[in-house]
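Hi everyone,

Forwarding the result from last night's run.
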Amino acid sequence: MEEYQLCKRCVMDTTACEIEFDSDGVCNFCTNYLNNRKKLIKNPNRENELNEIVSKIKKEGEKKQYNCIIGVSGGTDSTYVAYVVQKLGLKPLAVHLDNGWDSELAVSNIEKTLEKLDIELYTYVLDWEEFKSLQKSFLYASTPDTELPTDHAIRTILLSAARKHKIKYIINERNFSTEGILPTSWSYGPFDWKYIKEVHRIHGNSRLSTFPHLDLKSLFFHYAVRRVRDISILNYVPYHKKEAVKTLESELEWRDYGGKHYESIFTRFYQGYILPKKFKIDKRRAHYSVLVAGGQLQREDAIKMLEKPAYLYDCVDADKEFFIKKLGLENDFEKIMNSTPKSFNSYRNNSKIFIMRNSSIYPKIIKWIKRAI
C-alpha cells in the first residue's frame, strides 16, 4: 500500500494517483501549474494582447447584434466574465444550459446580473427524461465523470450559438488564477463524445436523440473551418477570487453559494457527497491548491478547511433525498455507492486524442481541438 504523502507547497496528496513528488516533497501538480501560469500571467504584453483582441472583436462584429458569446451559470467565474466583458464595451450574447438542476440562487444570480449589465440571455433546456437517463448511465458506470455530459452539452450549445449568429469568439471563464489543477483520474475532459456514447450504450435505457453533442468532425468544423476562438478573458485581467466576489456582491447584488460550481444542486451533492464517499476524491484539494500556489490562500488555512467535512451544508439529507427522487434511484442508490470504482479507461473513448502526447491519430484535428482546450 502506497504511503500517504501531502505536498509541501500546496494541499494535493496521494489520493490523486498521478501525483509525483520532487526531492523537496513538492508535487508535480503545483509545479506544472506555476510554470504554466508564469507563461500566461507574467507576460508583460498581456494587456496589449487584450486590447488587440477586444479591438478585433469589435471590428469584426461592428454591424452585428452580438460580437461574442459567453456562458453563464450563476457562479463566480462566469458572472465575473460577464462583468468584465461589459466593462470592455463588448456586445455578448449570454448562453445558459438548463439541465434541470439549477438552484434558485443560481437562477436569481443570472437574472440580476444580466439585467444590471443589460446583456441578453439565451437558455437551452435539455430534454429531462433523456438527460436523466444519461446521468444515471454515468452513475451506473461507476466512474467519477458523471458531470461530463453537462460539460459536453455546454460546450456544444456555445459553439452552436456562435455558428447561428456568425460569431467567432467565445469568451470563457477558464483561468489560471482559480483553476489549473485537476487530475485526469478525478475528471476526464468534456470533449469525448465517444466515451459518453459508450457509457450510455451500456447503461442507458433510451436513445440520445436530442442531446447536444460534438463528435470529432464537429469539433474540426468549428475550430478548423469556422476558426472559432476560445478566449480565457480572466487570464488577461487581475483576478482575485475574494475581490471578485466583493465586486459582484456590491455592484450586481450577486450572492455567493458556498463552493466551486455549487450553483448546481447536482454538483453540490455529487462533489460534496458522492465523490468523497465513493471515490475518495475531494475536489477541494485541487481548488484550494490553485489558490495556495497563486498566493490567494495560505496553505495552513487550506489544511484547516480540508479538516471540515466536504459537505458544508445542513441540507445534506434533504439534498440526498431530492437527488435520489429526481433521478428515480430509490432502489439503486446504495448499490451505486457500493459498486467498485472504475475509470474512463474501462470504456471505449478517445483519450488517445485528448490526453495522450505525441499521438499520430488525426494530427490536424488534434491541433485544433487542443487549441480549444
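Residues 357-364 have pLDDT under 50 and may be disordered.

Cheers,
N.
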